[in-house]
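ARCHIVE CARD
Drawer: 12
Card no.: 0347
Subject: one protein chain, sequence and derived structure
Cross-reference: see card 0346
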Amino acid sequence: MKYRQTLLAASLSILLGGCSLLQPLVGPDYRLPELRLPQAWLRAEPAAMAAPAVDPATWWRQLNDPQLDGLVTAALQSSLDLRAAQARLRQARASRSQAVAGLAPSVGVSGGASRSKSASEIAPNATVNTLYQAGFDASWELDLFGGTRRGIEAANADLAASQASLDNTRVSLVAEVARNYVELRGYQQRLAIARANLASQAETLQITQWRNEAGLASSLDVEQARTTREQTRASIPDLQNGLVAAENRLAILLGRQPGALQAELAATKPLPEAPDSVAAGIPADVLRQRPDLVAAERTLAAETARVGQKVAARFPSLTLSGSFGWQAYGLSALGGSGTLARSLAGSLAATLFDGGRLRAQVEIQNAVQEQALISYESAVLTALEEIENSLYAYAQARERVSARRAAAEAAKNAALLARSQYESGLADFQKVLETERTRLIAEDNLASAETTVLTSLITLYKALGGGWQQPAAGEGKA
């Protein structure tokens, strides 16, 4: 009979727990906000819509630069920012496990011994009694109104938001590595141009000095030639500073000390070749791909679920508790049929008056949920703005390169003609200086424009959400 009573109590507890899980959840059910999105990008060139698709997870590979590929791979393996984001993801997983544990009962084991003796006034011949006890204790708060389940729902959304934040860190990391690599190669190109012009201007100065000694040029021509040479020399330190800064930034992005990549990146190499077109995709698909928007949307889902948590706190709570064990005055007697002790209890608690504290908590969470909704809508608009600006900037950068390439070629030809005419006595020295100065500016502008094309492309792919791996069909994802 005793065991039947215990079995009946356990069955009743399980039945109540199952019924609690079938109860409807209080609070609002989450629904994805409906946003009006454009059907196509306003600033996208027709070629961008018809361009072949590029794997967004490895977009940088279309630049065909093996060294850049190696730097990106190393950064994804050892970046400190990425490691911090991975630690936050592990924290979110543990928080979810903690929330899920709230649905299960808590079971513990205990054991102990106590000695007692009555006062001599009450029992003159009292003996010392030692009571031994051991057993199991359990308690279970039933989720009658779904507060715990809403907590799990919020934890699931937090976990997905943390995963999306990790993906967004990857996007930013890849873009930063590519941008600094391109800037480093751009500085190398500009340094090469400045040094080549410096050598040419030094040669011009030497020729001018010879002509001055021969009485064919004035001292003014010599000083003007020296001024032009020194101005070019003065521009070199600034370019070197920019190169070293980009190199050190790359080392930090890879989780290394500044200067660690100096030997690896010392050799001057040309800029990567920009693709002829970019596949911009459809706005709705692109926005679903951006991990920062996924994180914002999942944060909204989590805050919506927490509204239900706060609402459930206003309803009664039912807790079941019980114990099962043995008690005896002798240690060897524990476990005997007469030493069995057990108890089962249930408690129902509800708040009758708290001055409006619980109601205020619901209102606070409603406001937090509204803020999350506004943040999500704002993030979507910001993403649209970034992509439109990036598409336009990339198109304009390509046009600028075409014009500056033509200008650099013309300036080079003009400088060669002016120098030839000067040596033949058909042009004055001022014309030589002007054309050489124009040539330096035009070639430097061309190198800067080519660098800007690539950095604009990198910014565009970052805005499109490229740089992270989407899960394959059927693959689990938080």
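Annotation on reverse: The chain has a mean pLDDT of 84. The chain has one domain: 19-112+128-317+358-463.
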